[in-house]
Amino acid sequence: MRALVFGYHTMGCVGFDALLRHGFEVAAVFTHADDPHEDVWWGSLADRAGAQGIPVHRPEKAYLKTDAFREFVSSYHPDFIFSFYFRWMIPTRALALAPRGAFNLHGSLLPRYRGRAPVNWVLVNGEKETGVSLHTMVAMADAGDLVDQERVPIALEETALTLYGKLEAAAATLLDRALPALRDGIAHLRPMNLEEGSYFGGRTPEDGRFEWNWSAERIYNLVRAVTHPYPGAFTAWRDKKLLVWWALPIRSFPAAPSGTVLAVDLDGVTVAAGAGAGAVRLVTVQLDGQPELPACSFALGAGIAPGARLGDPRPSSDPGTRTPDPASSRKHGNGETP
Hints:
- With 338 residues, this protein is of the alpha/beta class.
- 24% of the residues lie in helices and 24% in strands.
- A seven-stranded mixed sheet has the order 3-2-1-4-5-7-8.
- The longest helix has 24 residues, at 160-183.
- The protein starts with a strand and ends in a 36-residue tail after the last helix.
C-alpha cells in the first residue's frame, strides 16, 4: 500500500514510523520548513524520512491550491494519504486522489476540541481527560468520520509538554490498532456528531495574560498549559511583563484583594487570587528582559514584600472561555497546529 505523508512535529515522526512498522510504502513526505522565529523543540520528520531515502517536499502554502500540486500528488499514485500534524489545509481534490482514503491524526477526543492547539486548550480549561483521534479528512477541519480513538488521563500536575508526551504514546497505540484495519479494508468508520463537540482556534503569546481576580485553579491551569516550551503565562510588576513559568494553587490563605502579595518565603511568592478563590504561589518567574529566577529570589531583588500588588491595570478576558465561531473552522487546515 502506497501512502503519502503530510506531517510535522514529533507526531509526524510517530505516524511515519507506524506506517513503516505496518508495511506501508511511504512514497513521499510533505512537511514544513522550520520557522526561525519559533522555538523548535520537536523531532524532525524531514530528517526521519530523509534517513530512509524517502523524498521530502516542503511546499509553500499557496502551492497546495494549484493544479500543479494536484498533478504532483497524482504522480505518486497514492492508495492512502495521511496527515500527522500537518499545519495547512489539504485541498479535497488532492485528498480524492487516494482511493483507499485520506486520514488525519488529531490530538483530542473528537468531536471535542476540534481545531488548533488542543493540548493547550484542554489544560487551560481544566479537563481531566483527552486523547487522540484518527478520522477521515473532509473540507471542514476535524469533521470527518472517526476511525478510532485512544484516551489519555490528565494528571493535576500535567503540563502541555508532559501531556504531549502521553499523546505521542497514545498515538502509537492507536495507529498500531487502526493501520492494520485500514490496510486490510476492515476498519469500521463512524460519523462524527459535531453538535456534541467544540471548536477552538489557535493561541497567541498574548493569550498567556491572566488576571488576579480569576480563581487560583484557573490561573494555575493557564500556567501549566503554556509553560516551557510554550510562551508562558504572565502578569505585571511595575508596568513590566512578569512571566510565570511555574506556580501552584493554594487554598489555606485568608481572602485579600486580588493581586496582593500575602507571603514571601523560600517556597515562593504567595498572591491572593479572586475573592474567596484562594491564592497562587509563584514558584519560578522572569521579569521582562531579565533571567528566569526562583520567585523568592526575584522578590528579594525587586523589593517585593507582603502587601505589594501584582497585576496589570489593563482589562483582559479569560481565554478559557474563548470559542471561535464554528464557521471559522473552514479557514483552518484539515490537519492541526500543535
